[in-house]
Design brief:
With 340 residues, the chain is an alpha+beta fold. It is 27% helix and 23% strand. It folds into two domains: 188 residues, 2-Layer Sandwich (Fructose-1,6-Bisphosphatase, Chain A, domain 1), CATH 3.30.540.10; 120 residues, D-Maltodextrin-Binding Protein, domain 2. The strands form three sheets. It has an eight-stranded mixed beta sheet, with helices on both faces. The protein has a five-stranded mixed beta sheet with strand order 12-11-13-15-14, with helices on both faces. The protein has a two-stranded antiparallel sheet with strand order 1-2. It is globular, with a radius of gyration of 20 Å. The chain binds 2,5-anhydro-1,6-di-O-phosphono-D-glucitol (AHG) and manganese (II) ion (2 copies). One manganese (II) ion binds next to strand 5.
Length: 340
C-alpha cells in the first residue's frame, strides 16, 4: 500500500500502541533501541571488508566456539543500546555465560531481553547474509532488579520476538502477538520503512533447509521422514545462517530442520534466543515450530544456553514431520494427503 512506503517503524509502533490503549509505550521504546542497534551493526557489516571487523576475536564463547570480532561487536552494541533505557531488567546473550545485569547506575524495567546478537557467524567473512535474533519476556522475579528466572520462561509467554537480517538489504521483522511485520532499512533516510505488513507463510513448503551432510548421524525416524519428503519436488536451500534460511522460508514457504544427532543429542540450536523467538514469529505468521515431539513454544527452559532440535516453517510439512518423527504417523499409514 502506498502509505506503507512512508510508514516508518516509529510511526507503525505509535499506530500499534493506539490499537492497544493499555500499552504503556515502555515496550515501544525498546523497539526503538533495537532498531538503532540494528543500524549500527548494519554500518559495520556493510564495511566489514574495509574495517578491522572480520576474523576472530581471539577467544572462545561458552561452547568453545571461536568468537568473531563481529559477534563481540554486535553483542556490545545490543547490550549498550538497551541497558540504559530503564525498560530492561536483565539480559541473556549467546555471547555471555551468565545473565547480563543492568549496571547499578541505570534504572531497571519490566522486560527481560534474550538475544543471539550475531547469527550465522561462519558466514561473516564470506559476505553471506547474517542476522540478530531477539526475544522479550515480562519480568516475573520479585526483586527490584531482574533475575535468571525472568529469562527461563516458556516461549509461549514472550511479549515480542523478531530478528534483523543483514542481507542484500537490512530488514527488521518482529511480532508482538498481532501479526508479523517487516521493515526494510532505507540507508538514504536511515529509517526502517514498512515493506511487509502482516506476513503470512504459505501453507506448504517450496524449500527444504537442512545440513544434509549430517544425514548419516540423524535418528532413523528423521532419515525416514527425509526419504518421504524426497518423493516430492522441493528445492533445497541451506545458507548456514538460521535467520537467512528462516526469512526466505517465511516469505516463500519452506521447512527448516536441525535435528539431533549423535554428536549433539539435543540438536545444535539454542532454545531461548534462536528457536523460541523464531517459533513465536512463525506461529504468528501461520506456521509452526516443533522439537519433533511438540511445540517449541511450550518447552519450559531449564538453562540459558540449552539446545533443542528444531523443525520450523510451513505448517503442512512441520506438523507432518512432528507426527512422523514422534511416531504418531507411521510410514505405512499411506500417503499423508491427496497432495502428499
Ligand atoms: P551462530 O552463528 O549464532 O552460532 O548460529 C549458527 C547456527 C545457525 O545460524 C545455522 O542455522 C547453523 O548454525 C548452521 O550450523 P551447521 O554449520 O552445523 O549447519
Ligand atoms: Mn545463532
Ligand atoms: Mn550467534
Amino acid at each position: 500500500m502506498l502509505e506503507d512506503r512512508v510508514t516508518s517503524l516509529d510511526r507503525f509502533i505509535i499506530e500499534q500502541e493506539r490499537l492497544y490503549p493499555e500499552a504503556t509505550g515502555r515496550f515501544s521504546n525498546i523497539l526503538y533501541d533495537i532498531a538503532l542497534a540494528a543500524k549500527v551493526v548494519t554500518r559495520e557489516v556493510r564495511r566489514a571488508g574495509i574495517t578491522d571487523i572480520l576474523g576472530r576475536a581471539g577467544r572462545a564463547n561458552v561452547y568453545g566456539e571461536d568468537v568473531t570480532k563481529l559477534d563481540a561487536f554486535a553483542n556490545n552494541v545490543f547490550i549498550h543500546a538497551t541497558e540504559h533505557s530503564g525498560n530492561v531488567c536483565i539480559m541473556a546473550s549467546e555471547e555471555n555465560d551468565g545473565c547480563v545485569e543492568i549496571p547499578p547506575e541505570y534504572p531497571t524495567g519490566s522486560y527481560a531481553l534474550l538475544m543471539d546478537p550475531l547469527d550465522g557467524s561462519s558466514n561473516i567473512d564470506v559476505n553471506v547474509a547474517i542476522g540478530t535474533i531477539f526475544s522479550f519476556h515480562r519480568k516475573i522475579s520479585k526483586g527490584p532488579r531482574g533475575a535468571v528466572e525472568d529469562c527461563l520462561q516458556p516461549g509461549r509467554r514472550q511479549v515480542a520476538a523478531g530478528y534483523v537480517v543483514y542481507g542484500s538489504s537490512t530488514m527488521l521483522v518482529y511480532t508482538t502477538g498481532s501479526g508479523v511485520h517487516g521493515f526494510t532499512l532505507d540507508p538514504t533516510l536511515g529509517e526502517f520503512i514498512l515493506s511487509h505488513r502482516n506476513i503470512r507463510i504459505p501453507e506448504r513448503s517450496t524449500y527444504i533447509s537442512a545440513n544434509e551432510s549430517n544425514y548419516p548421524k540423524w535418528p532413523e525416524e528423521v532419515q525416514s521422514y527425509v526419504g518421504h519428503l524426497r518423493k516430492r519436488s522441493y528445492s533445497s536451500r541451506y545458507i548456514g545462517s538460521l535467520v537467512a534460511d528462516f526469512h526466505r522460508n517465511l516469505l516463500k514457504g519452506g521447512f527448516f530442520m536441525y535435528p539431533p544427532d549423535q554428536k549433539s543429542p539435543t540438536g545444535k540450536l539454542r532454545l531461548l534466543y534462536e528457536a523460541a523467538p523464531l517459533a513465536f514469529v512463525i506461529e504468528q505468521a501461520g506456521g509452526y515450530a516443533s522439537d519433533g515431539h511438540g511445540p517449541i513454544l511450550d518447552i519450559q527452559p531449564t538453562e540459558l544456553h540449552q539446545r533443542v532440535p528444531l523443525y520450523i516453517g510451513s505448517p503442512f510439512e512441520t506438523r507432518e514431520a512432528e507426527a512422523w518423527i514422534s511416531g504418531r504417523k507411521r510410514p505405512d499409514a499411506g500417503p499423508s494427503s491427496s497432495a502428499g
